[in-house]
Design goal:
about 140 residues, 5-stranded mixed beta sheet, Nucleoside Triphosphate Pyrophosphohydrolase, single chain, 3-stranded antiparallel beta sheet, alpha+beta
Amino acid sequence: MQAYNCIMVFDKEEKHLLFCKRLWDPYEGKFNLVGGKIDEGEDGFHAAYRELCEETGITDEDIELTHMMDFTYYNQGCYVEVYVGTLLSDVELVPEDHPLHWLPLTEDFFDLDKFAGEGNIGHMLEQVRDYGIGEKRK
């Protein structure tokens, strides 16, 4: 089963969430959270920090991630690990492929015309708001 990660990055004031705007499918033209593939045998936290740095330039010195939740898609043969973190200070973003955008938390993250993931982004944000950010690395 292929593993992926998805990373919710809040700005240091926790008023904005970081997104990439997809240049190609899946979800071409829509906003999506950053993330990518977890290599076979790779630790989930290591993969999350690696993908975050590759796609945004944000390093493990800029943010502390927590593991919040997972989604398993048996019909697609994959699962997604969801990580959350708040920037410790302002960071200059360095996009890998897709343009990066800070969007205010007042957005309707369930808007399927604007956001990728069939409503998952809205669901994940509601989980953070209602239950917190998950477990830190032990």
